[in-house]
Specification:
Elements lengths: L9 E4 L4 H21 L2 H23 L7 E7 L2 E6 L9 E13 L2 E7 L5 E6 L6 H16 L1
Antiparallel strand pairs: 1-2, 2-3, 3-4, 4-5, 5-6
Helix pairs in contact: 1-2
């Protein structure tokens, strides 16, 4: 819950993140390498296909916002959060829904916001500095720290 003394409204449209893309590729690469060291080659080749599909899915969803579950925009105004989910390549507007923020994890290299959707599920949104302008990223970090302290 955010207090009544909340800061100015934010409307954040995310850009593709090289850091997040590198993280997904590195993580899947480490798993592939560890499988190669443990399992026979025939099994590793089959599992590499699954790893490639998994890496492609996460990169398309969280880096390039090309699926219906992608969060490409986040807004805060009047003590309410709103997320916009949908494919950025489609000309129609993404679906917007009002959400309740559960908590925020603010780290030196990024932050993770957790939201409760209308259907009761929790949604985590990782945000790295290269996804936003430096001013918007600073304001979002301040808002996350402010809301956590109250």
């Amino acid at each position: 819950m955010t207090s009544i003394r909340s800061p100015k409204p934010l409307d954040l449209k995310f850009q593709p993140s090289r850091w997040l893309c590198g993280y997904f590729i590195a993580l899947h690469g480490i798993v592939a390498l560890s499988l190669w060291l443990v399992l026979p080659s025939i099994f590793v080749i089959a599992l590499l296909m699954l790893l490639l599909v998994s890496a492609a899915y996460y990169v398309l969803r969280d880096v390039y916002f090309c699926t219906q579950k992608s969060v490409g925009r986040l807004a805060f105004a009047d003590n309410h959060w709103r997320i916009y989910q949908g494919d950025n390549r489609v000309t129609s507007a993404p679906t917007a829904q009002r959400v309740e923020r559960l908590d925020a994890t603010v780290l030196p290299f990024g932050l993770v916001l957790r939201f409760k959707l209308a259907n009761g599920r929790a949604l985590s949104v990782p945000i790295l500095p290269d996804q936003l302008s430096s001013d918007h990223y600073r304001r979002l970090r301040q808002l996350a720290n402010f809301a956590r302290a109250t």
